[in-house]
Amino acid sequence: MSTSKIDTTSGSQMPDIYKRFGGSASKAEPLSRAANDVNLPVWSMKNIMYLLNGAYNDKSRSFLVLGAAGIGKSAVMKQFAQTAAKKEGRVYVKFNNLAGLQRSEAIKDPSQYYVFLDLRAGELNPEQVQGIPDVDYGKQHGYLRFLPPDWVKLVSNPKFSGMLFLDELNRSDKNILNSLLQLSLDREISGHTLSKNAMVCAAANWGAEFEGNVQELDTAHMRRFKAGVLVLKPEEWAEYAMEIGISKYIIDFAMSNPSDNMFGKGKQINKDIPINPASLEFASNSLKEVERQYHDHWTSNTPLPAGATGDIYQDLSVALSGDLGEEWVNKFVEWLRIVHKFNWNDIVGKAKEGAFKTKSKEFGASEKFALTSYITDQTYSRWLQARESKNPAEKQKAIDMLNIQLATILTGVDKEQASMIAKVIKHQMLKDTPKEMNELDANLLAAERWTEFIVPILKSVKEEYPNDFQAFQKVFASMKSANANALGREKEDKN
After folding, report:
1. Helical H runs in 262-364?
2. What superfamily in CATH does domain 29-232 come from?
3. Is the pTM of this model over 0.85?
């Protein structure tokens, strides 16, 4: 292999990179009307994560994401900050959550932290940006100076590393907006210079619902940023939601009808309470709390909280209604009842008979997602239970039985459901790695687990359902190759 140095100025050897890593050409997605009017690009969450890597390496230009409320602008920033913390070997902290002594220590010496500092521009007052007037100093010296706020002390500390996130930028007071724009352009605020390791990122609300309620970001403002509009795809949100631990019930129900259940665009949705990814995350937290209460009540005989009815569905209806509105919650709870009426052995039997393929055209999206949710729940919990057995013979017998049953189910449902089931199960395995592991080892362990899980299933399919084997292989092809690539890269690194 040639060891000649690449001439990045002339690009004489750059085509080698394109040959090795270039995929087939794809057309750019059409711009939304709002973005097209001001010639802004449309970005997905993956696009933003990719672009933030560039902003991380070159902090001289600030980064701005525009988009509708609640679709994940701040979430993707926070997710990247957590990734950057791992990269630097620092402890990720959200400055807004620090208090007292811990906050003082972080300001004095932030060297061990990667700090995510969330400034809600629309809630800032002048003192929180310019600082508090030092009256005593003014009396002694004849002119006034300002004592900088805590966050300015923090981000101007040379040891600081982190992201300064200016949220709701265009909802701020005009004078505060100008100060924040100066920060974005000159990396200075109130006479203090930002640490060279500080990323400056911002988000602004964008859409018809905000007209008249926000400051206009004109061309001169926009030139200070690398900017684009976030347009969220349901599949992309589902992947992100699984990453951060949003309840699979919430994800599956939202994905069964994204227009109504994820974005609240349907006519029947409660208009007073927004339906968007942010409110779905709140609802997930509420659902998990109700589940915890009932789990503790069942396993430890812990009394249910005062006001609880003893019916988990009724208490979920109350707990979630403030997050997503009564109409959404009623539909969700009815859907949840459908999920919990399924029976594992009954599903295996019907799949073997081909009943699901016969009825697949009759199933609505909501029913399909309910069935998928139940199957993935049961499969993963049964797999974990089998792996935990201390008797090797019993463990292998349980795993073999599960493999045959899952092979029967996957060949007995339609391809869309089979692909979805496999994807969710794989993701759960990827997440279930020890927290103390480094990222590479965790990925390798997850790849090994996936191989351990899927190879026997493929074998079962080949033996029991040879006519389905080729089609079934395609369901797993992309997922298998992704793990193979990860393992291959590790081998290359070692060589």
Report:
1. 277-300, 312-324, 326-339, 344-353, 355-359
2. P-loop containing nucleotide triphosphate hydrolases (3.40.50.300)
3. no
